[in-house]
Amino acid sequence: MRMRNKYRKPTRLSCNAGSRCSISAVVWSLIGCLLILHLYSLVHQKDGMGGEIQFRMTHQPQFRELEEVEEENIQIPPPRGKRSPRAAKRRPKRTTTLVDEFLDENSQLRGVFFPDERTAVDPMKDLGNDTFYYYPGRIWLDTDGNPIQAHGGGILYDEKTRTYYWYGEYKDGPTYHAHKKGAARVDIIGVGCYSSKDLWKWKNEGVVLLAEEKNETHDLHKSNVLERPKVIYNQKTGKYVMWMHVDDANYTKAAVGVAISDYPTGPFDYLYSKRPHGFESRDMTIFKDDDGMAYLVYSSEDNSELHIGPLTEDYLDVTETMRRILVGQHREAPALFKHDETYYMITSGCTGWAPNEALAHAAESIMGPWETMGNPCIGGNKMFRLTTFFAQSTYVVPLPSFPGSFIFMADRWNPADLRDSRYVWLPLIIGGPVDQPLDYNFGFPLWSRVSIYWHRKWKLPQGWSGLTWM
Ligand code: GAL
Known about the structure:
The chain crosses the membrane at residues 21-40. Belongs to the glycosyl hydrolase 43 family. By secondary structure, the chain is mostly beta strands. It has a single domain, classed as 5 Propeller (Tachylectin-2, Chain A). It has helices at residues 20-43, 85-90, 98-103, 110-113, 382-386, and strands spanning 45-46, 52-55, 68-70, 151-158, 163-170, 176-177, 184-185, 190-196, 203-210, 225-234, 239-247, 255-261, 269-274, 284-288, 294-300, 305-310, 323-325, 332-339, 342-348, 359-363, 371-374, 377-378, 392-398, 405-412, 422-433, 448-453. A hairpin with a 2-residue loop joins strand 18 (332-339) and strand 19. It is globular and about 80 Å long.
């Protein structure tokens, strides 16, 4: 494998003992220490909410705010007499943790993870200085004033209409369990589509792929599962192609479904489902490369590994080529992106709707080998970082005017009421050395670090003005 160390070795001072050089080295070191201390005191400051803010690194001045490391200090309430019987069953002996509180729908901290409608972000209101701010975890309203329904989603930038389209699971129905041990579910309604010029104010374009109400043998019969829809545009055929995870209520079908439309706003015609390359396929994504080649990535072999393979030219099928990646690592919720000829991916662990630790991976060739670089999450607190800020990856949106900067899109699932699941959008920045040794490279940092910074509120940097950069 090509070694690609992007970091220079430290310069050495080569002086003989006792020479004047060693004295000046000491003096310069002292000056250096003082400068560092000064810099530290300048940037190390407390914010007004009890959280601590530090600056990690700033490769572009516009990103200074995005790279602030914001700490969270959430006090776990003392145990109460009456707690949710489900939460008590899950962890009978241990003291409660933030994750227990998150999973307990009766927790006093519920409002921390799922703030109520009073704090909803409504882009149609005059928000003054709050305009364009993302508030991860808050209810996010569309231009009609309804909560956005686009879970497990992804974003397409359509060059023809110079518009962003956000597609996701439209889950605005009741949550129930198909049977005692089944995962919480909502019947399929379809794929929601929202359009935007600025990635903040979203107009509901309707349900662009609908569930089947009557035919029980149909893949999209409402009693089945439709998750993680993603859409890409095929330049050669002029079609918008949607790939999604289709399954039965017990997740045993484990297949991908494909739908097609002439317009980004649909309607999409459902074509078929299949097990790609003959293998189980659950959480999945598709990725369109700069050269027009597109790829399917899916969790397979009981979610113990991911598979990746190119799509056919028309994007309607997979080809015969497939590679197994991250074998034995049990990863899902893949979100793939590219920077500087390197491919990156964020994945989650496999714990259903419950949050877990994200990992970042990198590869020089999209077909692998892929290396795991560690947890990309920065800030919040330890539990925030170990739970991907209580959310699960779904997509990473590139910001072409700011190379190396992306929006990380994740779902904060609410298994008690899935329609009320929230969106956690955060800045993702590529840069700086990775902070843990990698699998195959003898400890040398071959890749740049992927960092996802926690923010209670944030907005895209100045200079970003929707589509003017395109
Ligand atoms: C997760 C998966 C979600 C959904 C959920 C059901 O592991 O990422 O998309 O399938 O399980 O429990």
